[in-house]
Design a protein that fits this description.
elongated; Four Helix Bundle (Hemerythrin (Met), subunit A); four-stranded mixed β-sheet; Hypothetical protein af1432; alpha+beta; eight-stranded antiparallel β-sheet; 4 domains
């Protein structure tokens, strides 16, 4: 029996479905191959000093598959044997391997040539790190291994960037295994080659790697490769669509979807581990370059107890973890906004945080929507949370769609990745809607019903979403809107592409779906666009986009007559303590605990620029405004501000009141800290598009109602207030809200005479407001 037949026989000696079968099978194949090659060497070469047969590649690593090729090196010391004699001995070695029907990559080198090749060829260097003796002079092979490893460590500064660049180029060529329906298990991102790179990084003494889950993932990828060999009779590494069913059956899996899910899960674990190891290696290399001994860590504060350190976001003290269930979400928001990955150790610590109370507090849900609003940085940040199990703790239903393939030529991603990509696209549309937080949550969950056995994923997804939102503590009205969006997320595109858009019945059907509410329709339209864009170019064509635009115009026209709901509110009575303070010429400020943060109540005599001054004082005190309601009663401003403090300190009512008093007297020093704080902005540029400012027709009979939608930032409200003051306008009342990092600010403004603005003045003010949002320095 040939060695090829022996290896195939060994591959079938143990059931693929038994625990540890794959590792034992590969070990048996490696042992049989090594033993046979030793016999070939003895017969061809005999006992000769200064000569040895070694293996690199899969046999060198000990993970040969049933039909893996052999990568052999005949090494010699360059002194004991003549070149002609070496050539003859090499032929005696290679021909029996070829006769056995095995694929062979072979070379003959001296120890010095091995060292030279390793210096000049990155791929060869990585391969030689795995060199294993098969037969012959053990000291010769040991010396080559030691020299190669020594050179690899000593030249790590030059080799590390080369290795990372080569790895990234390979990923670009072969794609991401987790997102491919025909993955290349060897060369793709998260594949077998990446494990070789990961090992090379550790052998350079630049990093360590986790030994548990990533090794298990590596073993699973090897199992799938072995099954491909046996079912196809070919030693290939790509899992083709037509082979999936046979491979799945051999591995004891229910179907090809389960197979692809397991492959994606394993590849994601390998890719994430390699990314983390690459960062560790870079940090270690920078530390070596300084050559100044132990470094004091350079820690730049990011807020909420997190710091920037060596290109990662790290937790200042692990003691915070045990008492704050919201900390992982807050960490994710901080890291993503600064384009930083969370350090693996920090993620591991965060995974030990307590469970969030059910239903979630409002502050925690807000943190989730803030995370969803960060744009493309959501994808890697979410992956880190997912890898340590936090996502599944928050949304157990996520496990059913995690890494799940989509058998649809339109889709380019797994279900869970498509959901994240839809959120990213939805964030770009957040200024098209009044409630971007609801849009983002709907985007995250719109395909949550694509579970095994589902017949109507929209209907099933709506039921699952309702249960999730109840746990997340979303108010009933908001939850109802999100459930509707999930249930109807295919409705608009179906109507646009399959119904007659000239038929009034088509338009009326859409109006009925959204309950005659324009804002609900805008949310559904934005979700439809985001879903289509995320699916890929086959789902979002010019033709489909044009039809949806036509449908949108007709539905908007139908809903144009819907009544406008005023956001003005009744002004509460002025407390006695406030009246007494105002009687002495001082403002009155009170602070109450709220969820989230604090409520700051401000009573002051109404004056030109009061809104801007109050917003500036709050910003100067390091407070973030989440919402506000501003009103005026008989010349007294009665304002309610809901704020948060990144540092965790409660607002000081006396200091805020004193600052407002100095500002009213013309002393602007109270805003000294404001200029410094406003410079601290998110490192992630907004993907939501340009600022939008417009007038709400018929919003009020005796004031002009302006709405501004833009990215929230430190000092934004102050800039808007200054703008309105410079335009000579009075702010009769205002409704300030922040949803998912985007502000929705509504102002009821009048001229100094108390009259509404003229059309020309309105256009001038809107332009000035946009400039104030986009260019605060101007």
């Amino acid at each position: 029996m040939s060695l090829r037949a022996t290896r195939l026989d060994l591959a079938g000696t143990r059931d693929f479905t038994l625990p540890g079968a794959g590792e034992a099978r590969r070990s048996a194949i490696a042992s049989a191959t090594t033993r046979w090659l030793g016999e070939v060497y003895t017969e061809a070469v005999g006992e000769r000093r200064g000569l040895a047969l070694a293996a690199v590649g899969s046999l060198g690593r000990g993970d040969s598959g049933p039909l893996s090729d052999l990568d052999l090196v005949l090494v010699h010391d360059g002194r004991s044997h003549r070149a002609q004699e070496i050539a003859v001995l090499a032929d005696r070695l290679w021909y029996p391997v070829w006769d056995a029907g095995l694929r062979l990559d072979h070379s003959v080198r001296t120890a010095g040539e091995c060292r030279s090749v390793a210096r000049d060829d990155l791929t060869a260097a990585v391969g030689l790190l795995d060199m294993q003796l098969l037969a012959g002079d053990a000291d010769l092979v040991a010396g080559i291994r030691a020299t190669t490893a020594h050179d690899w460590r000593g030249d790590a500064r030059r080799r590390l960037p080369q290795l990372i660049e080569a790895t990234q180029a390979r990923h670009a060529r072969h794609g991401e295994i987790a997102q491919s329906q025909e993955p290349d298990l060897k060369e793709g991102r998260g594949g077998l080659r990446d494990m070789t790179v990961l090992t090379a990084l550790t052998q350079a003494w630049l990093t360590d790697r986790d030994r548990g889950r990533v090794d298990e993932a590596y073993g699973r990828l090897l199992d799938v490769r072995d099954a491909i060999h046996l079912t196809t009779g070919r030693g290939r590494d790509r899992l083709h669509r037509e082979d999936c069913d046979a491979v799945a059956a051999l591995l004891g899996l229910s179907d090809s979807d389960e197979l692809l899910t397991e492959v994606a899960d394993a590849a994601r674990a390998v890719a994430w581990s390699l990314d983390a190891a690459g960062r560790r290696a870079g940090q270690s290399q920078r530390a070596r370059t300084l050559r100044v001994g132990p470094r004091r860590p350079a820690m730049a504060p990011l807020g909420y107890g997190f710091f920037r350190h060596d290109g990662e976001a790290v937790l200042g003290s692990a003691q915070q973890v045990g008492s704050d269930p919201e900390l992982p979400l807050r960490a994710a928001v901080v890291a993503a906004r600064h384009r930083l990955p969370l350090a693996p150790r920090t993620l591991t610590n965060l995974a030990g945080s307590p469970d969030i109370a059910t239903p979630w507090p409002a502050a925690t849900l807000r943190q989730l929507t803030d995370l969803l609003a960060v744009g493309p940085e959501l994808v890697p940040t979410w992956e880190g949370l997912d890898q340590v199990g936090l996502v599944q703790r928050w949304i157990p239903e996520w496990s059913a769609v995690r890494s799940r393939p989509q058998r649809n030529a339109v889709h380019r991603h797994t279900v869970d990745r498509h959901l994240l990509e839809t959120v990213v696209e939805a964030a770009r549309l957040s200024r098209d809607v009044q409630r971007p937080d609801l849009l983002l949550v709907a985007a995250l969950l719109h395909d949550i019903g694509k579970v095994a056995g589902s017949r109507d994923h929209s209907a099933e997804g709506a039921e699952i979403t309702a249960r999730i939102l109840e746990r997340l503590g979303m108010p009933a009205d908001d939850a109802g809107t999100v459930v509707l969006l999930v249930r109807e997320h295919l409705t608009l595109m179906d109507a646009a592409t399959r119904r007659d858009l000239e038929d009034p019945a088509t338009i009326h059907a859409v109006v009925d779906v959204v309950g005659g509410d324009l804002q609900t329709f805008e949310l559904l339209r934005a979700l439809t666009v985001a879903d289509s864009r995320a699916a890929g170019p086959k789902a979002w064509t010019d033709w489909r986009a044009g039809l949806l635009a036509t449908l949108t115009d007709k539905v908007r026209a139908e809903l144009a007559g819907a009544p406008v709901t005023s956001v003005e509110h009744a002004v509460p009575g002025i407390p006695t303590a406030a009246s007494e303070a105002l009687g002495t010429g001082h403002p009155f400020v009170a602070v109450e605990a709220a969820d989230p943060g604090w409520t700051v109540l401000v009573y002051d005599r109404d004056r030109h620029g009061l809104f801007a001054d109050t917003a500036g004082v709050l910003a100067a005190h390091g407070l973030t405004v989440r919402s506000a309601r501003l009103a005026t009663l008989d010349g007294i401003a009665a304002d309610t501000w809901v704020v948060e403090s990144p540092g965790g300190d409660a607002p000081e009512a006396r200091r805020i009141a004193a600052s407002l008093h100095r500002l009213a007297a013309g002393d602007r020093s109270a805003l000294g800290a404001f200029a410094r704080r406003r410079a601290v902005r998110s490192a992630v540029a907004s993907t939501a598009g340009p600022t939008r400012a417009f007038v709400i027709p018929s919003g009020s009979d005796d004031a002009t109602v302006l709405e501004v939608r833009t990215e929230d930032r430190p000092g934004l409200l102050h800039d808007l207030g200054v703008c309105l003051a410079q335009q000579g306008l009075g702010v009769r009342s205002a409704h300030i809200a922040t949803h998912a990092g985007q502000t929705l600010d509504t102002f009821y403004v009048t001229l100094p005479t108390g009259a509404p603005l003229s059309p020309a003045k309105t256009a001038q003010v809107l332009s000035a407001l946009i400039d104030a949002c986009d260019d605060p320095a101007g």
